Amino acid sequence: MAVRPTTIRFPGNPIEQEACGVPWGVTLTPFAAKDENDIPPVYGSGGELLPRCENCWAYYNTYCEQDQWSWDCALCGTTNGLSSESIMRYSLPHSSPENMSSFIDLELPLEGSEEMQARPVYVAAVDLSSSEEFLELTKSALLAALEALSPGSLFGLATISHKIGLYDVQGPIPVVKNVFIPPDSAGNLTMELEDVMPLFSFLAPVDTCKDRITSALETLKPTTSWERTTAAGQGLDGVLLGGRGFGVAMEALLKYLGSEYGNTYALARVFAFLSGPPDYGLGQLDTRRYGEQYASKGEDADLALLPEQTPFYRDLAAVAVQAGVCVDIFAVTNEYTDLASLKFLSIESGGSLFLYSNTDDSTLPQDMYRMLSRPYAFNCVLRVRTSSEFKLGHSYGHFFPDPEYENVQHIICCDSFATYAYDFDFVNDVGFSSKELPTIQIAFQYTVVVPPDEPSISGSSSSKRGKYSLKRRMRIRTLQFETARSVNDIYDTVDPEVVLSILVHEVILSSLENGVREARILLHEWLVNLTAQYNDAYKIAEYTRGGLSTSHVDVAFTQCPQLQHLPRLIFALLRSPLLRFHEEGVHPDYRIYLQCLFSALEPSSLNRAVYPSLSSYDTPDKQAYPRHSLSRAALITSGSPIFLLDAFTHLIVFYSSTAGATMPFPPPQDCLLRSTINKLKQERIITPKLIFIRGGIDDATAFENYLIEEQDVEGSGFTSVMGFVSFLDEINHDVVEYMTKSNGK
Sec23/Sec24 trunk domain: from which residue to which, for each copy (predicted)? Predict the structure, then answer.
């Protein structure tokens, strides 16, 4: 459980909070195996015995004052009595995890039947209204998935077109049975999937049926244009529909699987492979809105294309949650698919959304294997509590709030990368007293599927040997922070990566509600305000008889190293596809994909995705400089022949035209550069695309597009003036105007 605050020293009161201009909050990665300092929790059992405060319900922890009979809550100060069991438990201080560490992970008793087999269940739903290339890529991805699945898992193969196909691979040859999807948007299937094929014929054991599943995959063929035309008939305004009945198929599959929720499985995962938009039957999406001429109508294209056009897939996500099913969507397409509507089915059911623009260089098989190889928790409940002087403001991330309890979030499926963010507000105008330290406690309850050979934390053996079992656990982290002595003290402890995380969440929400243009204005105004507050705090700005001039303002934060990277981060964020305009050619589906990706990344990864790192090498075995600015000038002045650019989703190795003919290209497998690349790939939640470019020989556009500091922030490409420099000039001008107006001069 990694927790990173925007500033290590908290503001002492609302006046300081307002005066500093820095977001006040934290990012949280609850299922990370270790904390932000690489320290693991102390494990134990008896989580249900942990004392709780009778006033605020916080858990007992190492920061609580304790005597023989009672303890004082570190969050609200309430004195609580200890039960006789707890008195005995705490008579030896180091006998319980909660007295040994403020970061603990305890087993809990399972609710309901502990004898449940809890076999992992996976279902692939493959779009056949596609191309041969799409299906070949999907087959490769599913073969990779089969290698990653643990023995004892159950796997089902379904196909989607104008009909739903269910495969039985448990016999000598694969058998597929189909049910046709009604073409009208109000029609339901003529029969239940259970009547088409019993669920236990559909779900096959991976360890005994892997070869037959592979054989079934080889039989997948795209539906012909004749089949689609005959089935679909005429669509809206005489346009032929494509025969991709995704909505009906997913609704039916969820109902099909849901019948065994709590018996056969505790969590099922559906992998939905899409080659285009749902355009047939219930849940079909009208993609004509992408072709509208918004500019000629005076409308904001981004504001029109970012909202969902139907609540169907959001509602379907609620059905998935009730059925215990997590849906991952893999869209492999360059046509408009309306991910703005589809995304809810994945992110609100605990799944992920992936987008690949083509099949040629797609990393889908690697992403599939990577996703299934890492541990995950499910049926998670997350609660963040604070000491009484402050409270949670906004909560950000892929979860859904509890309908009854405030500040309780439910997460259907959570891996070790999934990150959430929170910002804080003061409860009143007083702030923190000099005696009390701001305290945060995070409680994360979760369930994991334990393989037959894995012992429990408490050391007990499973009563059902040879079968999967469930373990319910609770991870608790309590943290205390110091309060700042001044605004300058806050600035000195700022973490710019965490500040960026909070800002990204805010601008995503703003763009969804008010459009990209308003989100850009919000971000620009934030930087102007921060710069003005910094100049006030350090008393840099000088007013003369003629007023405040731009030469008297510090926009580079020269007196505060912790803030110096922020202008570059804001400039890069404004240049990113997340906030560039529709008119610049940013595809709305790609923007939605980035919103989903960025809003789940931990701060360091997000920082890399927004402002890529550029390092240089003298040879493949010798690094020259670890970091350069993203500009052509940096390439020229460094004098190095090789550059490595890490943009999180892409890794680009660029050999400059000055690299000698003896320099090996591409770099050999056993060199330092290759080992660095391999390490970066291993640390990612997704597989970065690796590109090698020789300057003067290959097309270097992919590399040059990342040299953003010489690009205009408004997107007009390369300009006669330096992009980042002119951006700072604009900020400088706006800061002078802001400070002059604020001071009435």
Answer: 119-371
Two structure tokens written together for 380: 């998670």
Model pLDDT, residue 533: 93
Angle (nearest 5°) at CA 34 between 685 and 606: 35
Residues facing residue 89 across a β-bridge:
none
Q: Which of 5-9, 183-187, 424-428 has the lowest mean pLDDT?
A: 183-187
Checking if the pLDDT of 465 tops 70, the result is no
CB proximity list for 301: less than 8 A, separation 6 or greater: 292, 294, 295, 581, 582, 583
Spatial distance between the Cα atoms of 140 and 129, rounded to a whole number of angstroms: 18
Asked whether residue 722 is assigned to any structural domain, the reply reads no
80 and 126 co-located in one domain: no
* Cβ-Cβ contacts under 8 Å for 39 (sequence gap 6 or more): 103
Indicate if 364 and 474 belong to the same structural domain.
no
Indicate if 50 and 83 belong to the same structural domain.
yes
Read off the pLDDT of residues 366-397 as tens digits, 9 standing for 90 and up.
999 999 988 899 889 999 999 999 999 999 99
Please report whether residue 618 resides in a domain: yes
Q: Is residue 720 part of a domain?
A: no
Specify whether 100 is located in the same domain as 150: no
pTM value is: 0.90
Q: By three-state DSSP, how is residue 425 classified?
A: strand
Same domain, 363 and 385: no
- Look at residues 373, 398, 431 and tell me which one is the last residue of a structural domain: 373
Least confident piece of the model among 57-66, 195-204, 255-264, 719-728: 719-728
Helix (H, G, I), strand (E, B) or coil at 349: coil
Complete DSSP assignment for 636-681: HHH--SEEEEE-SSEEEEEE-TTS-TTS-SSPPTTSHHHHHHHHHH
CA dist 82 and 267 (Å) reads: 37
Integer Cα distance of 427 and 58 in angstroms = 18
What integer pLDDT is reported at residue 741 of this predicted model? 85
**Domain shared by 155 and 60, yes or no:** no
Integer CA distances (angstroms), 345 to 51, 289, 412, 536, 562, in order: 38, 21, 12, 47, 39
Convert the pLDDT of each residue in 68-100 to its tens digit.
Answer: 889 999 999 999 998 988 888 888 767 789 989
Specify the CATH number for the domain of residue 271: 3.40.50.410
Q: Using alpha carbons only, what angle is made at residue 627 by residues 626 and 633, rounded to the nearest 5 degrees?
A: 130
Work out the number of other CB atoms within 10 angstroms of the CB of residue 742: 12
3-state secondary structure at position 160: strand
Q: Mark whether 97 and 162 lie in a shared domain.
A: no
Q: What is the CATH number of the domain that holds 94?
A: 2.60.40.1670
- 80 three-class SS: strand
Count of domains observed in the chain = 3
| Nearest alpha carbon to residue 352 among 420, 276, 271 | 271
Quickly list DSSP for 567-630: HHHHHHHHHSTTTS-GGGT--HHHHHHHHHHHTTS-HHHHHHHHS-EEEEEEETTEEEEEEE-S
**CB of 614 closer than 8 Å to CB of 645:** yes
Residue 687 sits at the vertex; the CA angle it makes with 686 and 689, to the nearest 5 degrees, is 130
Q: What is the CA radius of gyration of the chain?
A: 28
| Domain annotation covers residue 177 | yes
Q: Which domain holds residue 615?
A: 501-705
- For residues 20 and 72, membership in a common domain is answered with yes
